[in-house]
C-alpha cells in the first residue's frame, strides 16, 4: 500500500507508450435490423443458475458489404441453464445480451485467445473483489479466468466489457462489449413494454478505412472518436416499429464520445431508468446527456404516429466538452444514431406508470463526512490525473481507504484550467446517488447547455463532469473488506492511467 507521493508515475507511463495502446496487438476489423427480446423469460418464481463460456477471440466479420472487418469479440456460449439467459444479436459481432433475475447464480469461464492480457468486468454489478474483473486480475493469452457470483442487483441495464490495464479502450473499440439485463419482482409487477418492445440500444462511434477496417486513432487528450454510430455493432441501424410503446435501454459503449440524445421528430424524451435501474417516477427531459459507461432507459411512445413515418434518434451538437486542444477531433458534433420506421399498426394498452420503483434518497447529514467530503480532484500534468496520481497496480493512497458499512460523500472536481475535457467517472461497487452539482463561473455557459439533460434522479455508477464542474455523490459502502476501483470511463484516459484503487476496510 502506498500513500501516493508527488511522483505520480509519468516516467513509467510514458506518453508514447500510452498513446500507442495495443499497436502491436493488431493491424487494422445490409446489417440494419435491431435485435428483439422476443421469447425472453420475463419472470421466474425461483432463483436459477446458468453457466457461460466466454471466448475472447480475433475474427473477421461482415459489418459492411465487401471486405470483412477484423474485430475482437466475446464469443459467449451457454453451457448450462435456460436458453432465455442468453440472447444473441443476429448478424452482429457484439456479445449477446445476458438476462438474469435477482438471486440467480452466474458461472462463467473467460478464455483469453487474444494477443494481449484480458479480464472481463461486470459493469455496475455488485460482486465480490474476486469477481469484479479488476486490472490486476487480467490473464495472459492462452489462460482463463473463472467467475461465480449471485446476482444481487436491482432490476436494471448493466453491461460487461474488458478491463485490462492499458488495453481496455483497444479491446472495447474492436468489439468486446455486451449488455446484461437484470429483472426483479418489483419491476415485473409493473406494466412495462416486454418482448420485442424491450430493446437494447448499444451506441458506439467508430471509424473505418476504405477496406472496412477499424481505425483506432487515439488522441491522448480527447480519446478515440469515430465519425459514424454503430448500434449493437451495426451501421445505419433501423428499428422497424409498430404503433406501440417501446422500452429502449440505451447504453453508451463508446470509448470517448458523449451524446446529447433527442428524437428528430420532437417526441418527448421520457426517462424511466438509469445506470442502476428504474427511477422513482418517470422524468421528461428536453434531451438526455449520455457519457461513456452510462445507461438510460427511455419510454418511447410511438402509439400515435402514422404508419410510414420515418425519423431518427440523433445526437445534437453541443460545445464545451473540450477546451484548449485546438481544432481537429471534437466531442460534441452532431451525429445520427438510429433510424426508426413505423411500419405497422397495432393497438397499445400500456400507459406510462406514475410511479416506478421504491427509492430512498440518502441524506447528506447521515454521511460520516457530510461536512468534509472526500475530495478527489481531476488535474492535468502532461496527462489527466485522478487524485493527483496515475494508476499503479494495487496501490491505495491514504485518502483512498474507506470504512465499511458507512455512508460517505465524495466530491469530484474537474477544473484543470485552460486544458480541460469532460470526464465520466465510474465507481466499481455499490451504486450511488448524485447529491449536488456546481460549476466554476468561467465554464458555466457550456455547463448550462447540457445540465438539463442529466438524469440524476436515480441510482448511478457513472457521473459525467463537464470542464469546470464538480459533483457530490453519496455512497453506502457494504460490510465486506475488499479492493475496488474508480476511474474515468473515457476508455483511452483510463488506459493512460486515469484510474485508481480504493480499499474498503
Structural account:
The chain has 505 residues and is mainly beta. Helices cover 5% and strands 40% of the residues. The chain is built from five helices and 33 strands. The chain has helices at residues 15-19, 168-173, 185-188, 444-448, 491-495; strands at 49-61, 69-80, 86-87, 97-101, 105-112, 120-123, 144-150, 156-162, 178-183, 198-206, 228-231, 234-235, 238-242, 245-252, 259-263, 269-274, 277-285, 288-290, 295-301, 310-315, 322-323, 335-344, 374-380, 384-386, 401-402, 407-414, 420-421, 423-427, 432-439, 462-465, 469-476, 482-488, 499-504. The strands form seven sheets. The chain has a seven-stranded mixed beta sheet, with no helix packed on it. It has a five-stranded mixed beta sheet with strand order 3-4-9-8-6. The chain is globular and about 60 Å long. The protein starts with 14 loop residues before the first helix and ends with a strand. 51% of the residues are buried. Mean pLDDT is 90; it is low at 1-45.
Brief write-up:
By secondary structure, this protein is mostly beta strands. It has helices at 15-19, 168-173, 185-188, 444-448, 491-495; strands at 49-61, 69-80, 86-87, 97-101, 105-112, 120-123, 144-150, 156-162, 178-183, 198-206, 228-231, 234-235, 238-242, 245-252, 259-263, 269-274, 277-285, 288-290, 295-301, 310-315, 322-323, 335-344, 374-380, 384-386, 401-402, 407-414, 420-421, 423-427, 432-439, 462-465, 469-476, 482-488, 499-504.
